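Researcher: Good morning. I'm working through a list of sequences from a screen, and I'd like to move beyond sequence-only analysis. For each chain I'm collecting a predicted structure so we can compare shapes side by side. This is the next one on the list. No need for commentary yet; just the structure.
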Amino acid sequence: MSGSDPTVFVVDDDPSVRKSTERLVRAMGFAVRTFESAQAFLDAARDDGPACLVLDVELPGRSGLDLQRELARSGAEIPIIFVTGHGDIPMTVRAMKDGAAEFLTKPVRSQDLLDAIRAAVERDRARLGARRADAALRGRYERLTAREREVMALVVAGLLNKQIAGELGATERTIKFHRAHLMKKMQAESLAELVRMAAQLGKETDASRPTRSEAKPSEGREPERERTASAKVRQDGREADK
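Model: Good morning. Structure tokens for this chain:
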């Protein structure tokens, strides 16, 4: 079984439920693994492919809700479909708030379970796809040189090549060279796409640092606060002379 094949995990202490659910899932073309307890599920190795967990709430030892919390604490992300014969509204609300994909009451209609499993597997497939895309983006960013990262931060901040050259003490031609290379390395087809990438990367590409022109006043010009203070002193002096 490859890591990209969907797997449905079933945890239920009733052998007949495990068997019927396994038969139903296999008819969907998905791999299925069944367990009689929460601990047995935790002890088993799991592939890093799209999956979902069909979980009974009432289990011997660790309950289904306990297992949900344990998985959350360990950072394991898997959509959970709860099934129970004694569900109530507070229990359902609690499970859904903690991230459950669905909450079904026994006896569960086969079609309802099939629909829930398909939706949960697609949700997990999308999560894994997004995680792979994010890892690939970060990998491309890490391959940029230090200078290319500086240029990228200023490009996504909206500075023109000439302005970036002034900020970094380089020629405009050099900036154009770095800009072309970083666009190619990042696989960005446009400036808008590069900006979206920078937003996804977050603080790693933080372009909020002050530019030279923002960091200090222009030569020959006083800061606004100092100009105001100087004008007030001159005015007070004139009044005192009167």
